[in-house]
Amino acid sequence: MKIFTTRQQIRQYLSSLANQTIGFVPTMGALHNGHLSLIDRAKNNNDLVVCSIFVNPTQFTNASDLENYPRPIEADIAKLTAAGCDVLFNPPVSEIYDDNEQWHLNIGQLEFLLEGEFRPGHYQGVTQVVFKLLDIVKPTSLYMGQKDYQQFLVVSKMVELLNIPVKMVMCPIEREPGGLAMSSRNVHLSANEKQHALVLSQTLTWAKENFGTLPIYDLEQEAMARLQNQPGVEPEYFELADGKTLLSADENSSTIVALTAAKVGKTRLIDNMLLR
Description:
alpha/beta; 2 domains; Pantoate--beta-alanine Ligase, Chain: A,domain 2; globular
């Protein structure tokens, strides 16, 4: 696996590979099997797989969250090498951002719903860095996980608005044996908290099983109550949303997704499940 830390190096290398399809997996590191499933999918569908590891400061709304974000780069390199990734782009912040850089992209209501409400400014940071990475790598396809469902919609919207020639590919959520969605943040959970956190996937599964038998409002209320009744869990939201807009779902929504976020101890977790 080739490793590059500057824009110039990686651009030079990729531009020398004429007519090869590139699958790109942008990450913030602390890689787990969820990330590796994206590498695998990209590998099956492209000539070359590029992964980036960059803990992006502009998408953190909390300074201590940025400071505490896990950065096990040696372990990550070993995992990517074993997974057969071809290229790693691991730049320092100074390589991606100039001083006092401004960015604003109007992505409409998507920016302010659900995660956007609890993490204001987060999606401006996400679009800012993904735009930069796409400009550097110029991939054929971009692979992102369903766990960050809203992020996938936001980046898809940016790609559409800015006419970026890349194919968006959403890959299924990978789960731990008990059902907990794989996340880089799971390392912060104690064994006890991990048990409590299972209520997220259990409640999503319950909503899926009861979808169609109970009205949407009742499903949301009962799901929220289930989360609130679990010790050590502070739910922020549980919503059934239109899968294309993330506005509240109704009977006419062709795609419906249940999305939830909660704090378990000090760790904030998100999860979702497609219901229709």
